[in-house]
Amino acid sequence: MAEEAKKKADYDDLYNIPENMTGQIIDGDLIVTPRPSRHHVYAASVLGSELGPSYQFGRGGGPGGWIILIGPEIKMGENILVPDLAGWKKERFPSSEETNWISAHPDWVCEVLSPGALRLDKIKKMRLYGQNGVKHFWLIDPIAGTLDVFRLESGRWMVAGSFVEDDKVRAEPFQETEIDLSNLWLERTK
User: Fold this and answer.
1) Which of 24, 83, 126, 159 is the S-S candidate for 109 at Cβ 3.0 to 4.6 Å?
2) Which domains are present in the chain?
3) pTM of the complete model
């Protein structure tokens, strides 16, 4: 007996997941993950607060000209991805759309790794970001205290830098702002 073809997930499926979960559609599958841990959220929040003032608003002598969002829905083909942080150069960001998702692919994406979503972020989502022309990709591991920075070159991810614990970082595409990585790790705030 032939197996029935599996139904591809669509956007309406996202309305049926529990409120304490995050839903994404990747390669036709509905991927449902728990809300992130406090270490994960802390690292993403601090990074957003480090980059936002100078890159989004031009404060402190920063360049401005970016839109940086925490946890946006981004449509890439038939996929709906929810990165931890994403940034668009202001001129590329659609300020108004009739959907929840953003149709323009970001210029930069940051994923904060969680044990349960490690393969999803590093394998599936990283591949899709590259296939869709995201130019810069960051992976943060809040438990290991690391930041890996990637640049898309000729359709492939190239390592642009790897940093640990209390490094002071100027990483593309945000070289104008120094980020003290020690501020991203929750256990060091005590």
Assistant:
1) 83
2) 37-70+83-92+105-189 (3.90.1570.10)
3) 0.91
